[in-house]
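OP here, attaching both records as promised.
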Amino acid sequence: MAQFGFENDIHSILKLDMPISNAPMARWQRKASSSNTSALSGLSPGKSTNVSQSSSKTPSKTPGKNKKQTPSKMGGDRFIPTRNSNQMDVASFLLTKENDCLDTNNTAGNSDNQKAWSVSLNGYNIEDAKILHLGGKPLNAPEGYQNNLKVLYSQVATPASAKKTRYISLTPDRILDAPALRNDFYLNLLDWSSRNVLAVALHNTAYLWDASQGDIVQLMKLDREEDYICSLSWTKEGSYLAIGTSDCKVQLWDVENQKRLRSMPSHTARVGSLSWNDHILSSGSRSGHIHHHDVRVADHHIFTLSGHSQEVCGLTWSPDGRYLASGGNDNLVCIWPRVTGGSNGGSNESQSVRAWSEHQGAVKALAWCPWQPNILASGGGTSDRHIRIWNVNSGSCISSIDTQSQISSLCFAPNYKELVSAHGYAHNNVVIWNYPSLTRVAELNGHDDRVLSLTMSPDCSTVATVAGDETIRMWKSFELDPVKKKAKERLVKSTNSVIHHSIR
């Protein structure tokens, strides 16, 4: 019986069936009573309520509006979540007892018994009835949760101008042996065709390497051992290869049939540079003369250009075929107009459009900009070491930079609007420059001797370099992003369809 009496007492305490006589007033009751007292104290004797409200600092209504004002709720100083009446009663009781001394005899087992009694009597744990409850360890975030605002608290701010840059490998994608390569700065011994075939001259023999399949073919070999190949140049279609030799001749070869079509003598010294413009083949000689050959006719020599006093080691036609740029060992850069007609015996001579003498060393490195046909880049030798950008139309030097190294070859990389330079003494490396700012993008090191020539692959993703260490290295540094590559292919297909439609 005593046990049932004890349970009844506990039940009566938790249920709060009758008010607690000696309990202090709850805080929300104290707040409500103080608010009512302050409101009543503001009333002056003998004056109506309306007068006191009108004299208040804050008007009860917005001036100029007759809308009914929402009455303010008094007595609430914070938000209290919705609970049932039993929980509110228990919470009120716990608030009145928050300042009482804790029972030191309360053990962990006793607290467990109280929790069991509370659940059996009230249907919930009494601890859950607390309005504010602080304690315990914080809950872990659910798996996979990500805080989207965490960047706001980062100590290192991300610059607004930072852009995602491509990855450039500093090691070559492929290395080929080039034994018996002639280590001569003034020769042009490497060229890559539009059909993805790389031609290289090793002393007196010309070899072809198919980049698609990896096959190597010996195209030709000079009859005399003392003779050597000085220059190579593919036609635009990639079917024919022109070869300049040390015995003052220019040979034309059908690559598919591996047959020599003709041998064209006209120079008095070795032919160190070649460049095609449709059916016109231009050749530069050690004598300083440039000859134009029309390969369609028997009398091939149709024009002679005399502007250099020493060997012509750089020669290239502009993409639109309007101008021929030549560089020589006399430190000159000359711009020649397009050939308009033939002549008998090559007696006619043409005057250069531009002649620049700013370089202080031999100018072998020449490159036209593919997307700006009037822009020419030139590079000087050991005494100069400068890259200069020229505007052919105005004749002015747009910009220049000292590379601190001999420049042997230049080419533009259209995939990323960049300029690539090959260097000899003293760095023996390849440098990628941003155009037109001429800031360094990357340096490709690997050759043990000076880099003599470089050439770009037909898809403009890879550059091949040949050096005095008798190696050819492939640098796959300009490969397009797959998304950009697909967009470019779609553009090319649409352009071709328009061309075919206009032809029909």
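Record two, same layout:
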Amino acid sequence: MKSDIRVCSAWHDRHNRPVYTLSSTCPECGAPTENSAPAPYNPDDTYGDYRRARKRRRAEE
């Protein structure tokens, strides 16, 4: 299932809060939007161990 709700891709730089829309462009700044839904969970994720190890290394820094 694909989410229709999108968020401004440049909201960290241009806005003080996320800007959500249904459009392909941000109504406030005109930047392209991206899907706001997280990636679906897959129990057979072949790269999950690498991602979790990278997350642990970043937390230790």
